[in-house]
Amino acid sequence: MFGGLIAALLCYWFYQTAIRVKLNPLQWVIGALVIFYAVRFAWTFAVLKPLMGAAFKTHGMVSGVMIELSGAVIAAGVVALFHKKVMLKQAR
């Protein structure tokens, strides 16, 4: 739930930036989504699952929210870095 909301906000951000700097908005929005979900997947299954062990499958509500939020926040940070380091340099 939180991840989808954050992904939608990131797409809007990339769309507005692409329009402002005269780039193709569709490719940048899709790129942001691919990076966002790839990082979330990697964080969840390559880091959290081995780290949590059996608790990954049988967790409470608070742990579930933290798993969801941690992946979304880390992925949003990586997408923001991509925005700064790649997209804005592409506009020059």
Low-confidence stretches: none
In terms of DSSP E residues, the strand content is under 5%
Q: Identify the overall geometry.
A: elongated
The overall pLDDT, averaged over residues, is 90
Please summarize the sheet with the most strands: none
Secondary-structure-derived class: mainly alpha
Please count the helical segments: 3
Helix and strand sequence: HHH
What is the number of E strands?
0
Q: How are the secondary structure elements laid out?
A:
Elements: H1 2-20, H2 25-52, H3 61-90
Helix pairs in contact: 1-2, 1-3, 2-3
Describe this structure in words.
The chain has 3 helices and no strands. It has 92 residues and is mostly helical. The chain has one domain (2-90). It is elongated, with a radius of gyration of 15 Å. It starts with a helix and ends with a helix.
